[in-house]
Write a structure and sequence with these properties.
By secondary structure, this protein is α/β, with parallel strands linked by helices. The chain is built from 10 helices and 10 strands. The longest helix is centred in the C-terminal third of the chain and has 16 residues.
């Protein structure tokens, strides 16, 4: 069944009663002999935005890479939509409906905007559904339609970020993981990207957001987790973390 690019609605949904879509429990992983993540646990419920904040090097990107199964899991459990991902290859994770927008965008610079977006749906076979989703991406980011035949490498940083988001959306995800979408982007385009994230959530998308702009992320998020040196040290509603003195002193500059 076609899930649809933007989901099936969800405005006003009480996410506290929504089913858990992603469950991460006691996860440990690392590079070489050293562990980077230590007993990390978090959950994301359907149709909510959850943000993961922390200093550079805290392990946020490694967390997303481990969930995507790109980084090897050393211990713990990762369940998505009730399925254990411990031995699931990354391409099957995408096919199950879990997509990642990587840090640094990583678009294909020599392919056109349209070709980049079509690459996002390479596992799909329903061409009519893909065509509908392509138009939905263009409606979300009209500048991409204007740049339809332009090579990805000629776009601005913000436009490339929009393209990376659109490419991930073309895989028809149930959960969209975004890694530092505001990094290196002009402020006016950061605003547009955050508006798009909110729109996606309002239309039914579930989002796990890693973001350097902690204030903007917590204002947008339903819930948040704080990560320090590979461990979750604090969690709560987004508005609660915004008001938490420890978070303000460490990440908000208050």
């Amino acid at each position: 069944m076609h899930r649809g690019l933007l989901g099936q609605g969800g405005i006003g949904l009480n996410t506290h009663s929504a089913p858990v879509l992603l469950s991460v429990r006691g996860v440990r992983t690392g590079y070489g002999p050293a562990d980077v993540l230590h007993d990390v646990s978090l959950e994301v419920r359907e149709r909510e935005i959850v943000t993961l904040i922390g200093a550079n090097g805290a392990g946020k990107s490694t967390t997303l890479m481990t969930i995507s199964r790109i980084q090897r899991l050393r211990a713990g459990v990762i369940e998505f939509a009730g399925h254990d991902l411990a031995t699931t290859p990354p391409d099957q994770v995408v096919a199950m409906g879990l997509a990642q927008v990587p840090e640094g965008r990583r678009i294909f610079p020599r392919l056109t905007v349209r070709e980049n977006l079509e690459m996002g749906g390479f596992l799909r076979r329903d061409q009519s559904a893909m065509a509908r989703d392509l138009e939905r991406v263009y409606a979300l980011f009209p500048i991409l339609k204007e740049r339809d035949r332009q090579q990805g490498g000629t776009l601005s940083g913000g436009e490339q970020q929009m393209l990376a988001i659109g490419r991930a959306l073309m895989s028809e995800p149930r959960l969209l993981m975004m890694d530092e979408p505001s990094m290196g982007i002009a402020p006016i385009l950061v605003v547009r990207i955050f508006q798009a994230i909110k729109q996606l959530r309002d239309e039914g998308m579930t989002i796990l957001l890693v973001e350097q702009n902690a204030r903007a992320a917590l204002r947008l998020a339903d819930r948040g987790y704080v990560m320090e040196t590979g461990s979750i040290t604090l969690s709560g509603l987004g508005r609660e973390l915004l008001d938490d003195r420890r978070v303000q002193e460490a990440y908000l500059g208050d």
